[in-house]
Amino acid sequence: MRHVVAFALSLLGIVGMQMAAAAQQPPDSSQKIWLNVVVTNKSGKPVQGLAQSDFVVMDDRHPSPIVAFHAPEASAPETVDASTEVILILDEVNATFDQVNFGRDGIVKFLTENHGNLTHPTTLGFFAESGLQLQTQPSVDGNAMAAAIQQQAQGLRILGRAEQERLKRSQDAIDDLIARERNKPGRKLVVWVSPGWPLLSQRRDDLIPKQQQEVFNSVVKLNTELRLAQITLYSADPLRGGGGGERTVFYQNFTKGLAKPNGAEFGDLGLQVLAEQTGGRAIFGSDAMAKMIDECVQEIEGTYSLAIMPAPGEGKVQFHGVEVRVEKQGLKVRSRDGYYTFP
Questions:
Q1: Which of helix, strand or coil describes residue 95?
Q2: Which residue has the higher pLDDT, 10 or 245?
Q3: How crowded is residue 285: how many other Cβ atoms within 10 Å of its Cβ?
Q4: What is the pLDDT of residue 160?
Q5: d(CA 120, CA 253)
Q6: Please, are residues 224 and 340 in contact by the beta-carbon 8 Å criterion?
Q7: H-type helices in 189-342, by residue range?
Q8: Residue 53 burial (CB count, 10 A)
Q9: What distances in angstroms separate CA 63 from CA 28, 128, 282, 325, one per listed residue?
Q10: Per-residue pLDDT tens for 233-289?
Q11: Sign, CA torsion 131/339/247/122
Q12: CA separation (Å) from 56 to 36, 87, 272, 306, 308?
């Protein structure tokens, strides 16, 4: 059912440019806590030119010294920036037929802008009933990737599949993504084109303690592995003109870092929740999917990498809330919201 797209992606892997090795990898990433910090002005445009002294990091409301710092470098037009890999994933499991088509058309338009010359190594992926399929190597040839996605025949979505099963499949897909990216150097900006994964909005007291512990363990694992893989996640909803209803606001109940198992709910594993917790964004209701993707990618130009040392462990898994500030007026800052320490 996927022989056409599998062939196309394999072909892209052969001709794709081997740029990942050129990306910068922060030293001692297993010890330092690296924070990718997006800085924009009031109109949302990326801001460059800041120094380490402009930033303050608070770890559980206590100042934490910045022990390493990388600022974004201004690049000339048409120049490829290999420091960050862009990964575009089209979700066919959690989206309707019309949403998949709208998402596909938007990705194609994004890829073919600027005559198909991409400014960052880009990987194309599909989350289908058969699992996550990814292009074998990133490429800057947007036209070739657009041709591959246009050749793809949309697979059949199994109607009536239980939300629990779709959530499990979605978890497996992001686990597969992390496994692929964890040992690759540099940052990864992942735009997951999807209305989101099932939030399973059960009451908290509907979960028995064992289930809460399992959800908590999954949250800790995902939070930590996404951080170590240097993945910033964005959720782009392929729904024209808004009207997403409750899902556009309900996920916000879970974006605060989960500190204890007894507060765990399935909603803590939502796509939009993970996106905001990694320092990305959840974007809803635009008639211009290509513009949504472009806005996400442009944020690379205003992304600073800061490192702090983790707080000492206290004999248990513990969440540490992190806040990054810039001591200049008129600037907005966004970063991951925290990290976990272990016994």
A1: coil
A2: 245
A3: 13
A4: 59
A5: 34
A6: yes
A7: 209-228, 247-250, 271-277, 289-298
A8: 9
A9: 21, 44, 28, 11
A10: 999 999 776 555 677 888 999 999 999 999 899 899 999 999 999 999 999 877 789
A11: negative
A12: 14, 30, 26, 10, 11
Q: Higher pLDDT residue, 78 or 185?
A: 185
Q: Is the pLDDT of residue 210 over 50?
A: yes
* 68-70, strands of its sheet edge to edge: 68-70, 303-308, 33-40, 332-334
Q: What is the pLDDT of residue 231?
A: 96
Beta carbons of 276 and 65 less than 8 angstroms apart: no
Cα separation, 179 vs 235, whole angstroms: 20
Token digits for 38?
């997006």
Scan for tokens 């794709």, then name that residue.
16
pLDDT score for 69: 97
Residues in the chain: 343
**pTM of the predicted model as reported, rounded to 2 decimal places:** 0.88
| Structural fold of domain 3-19+85-300 | Rossmann fold (3.40.50)
What ranges make up the beta strands (E) of the chain?
33-40, 55-59, 62-63, 68-70, 84-91, 117-128, 131-134, 139-141, 187-193, 231-236, 282-283, 303-308, 318-326, 332-334, 338-341
What dihedral do alpha carbons 116, 122, 123, 124 form, nearest 10°? -40
pLDDT digits (tens, 9 = 90+) for 69-89: 999 987 656 667 888 999 999
What residues does each domain of the chain span? Answer: 3-19+85-300, 31-78+302-341
What is the residue type of 326?
V
Q: Cβ–Cβ contacts within 10 Å for residue 265, how many?
A: 23
Higher pLDDT, 74 or 304: 304
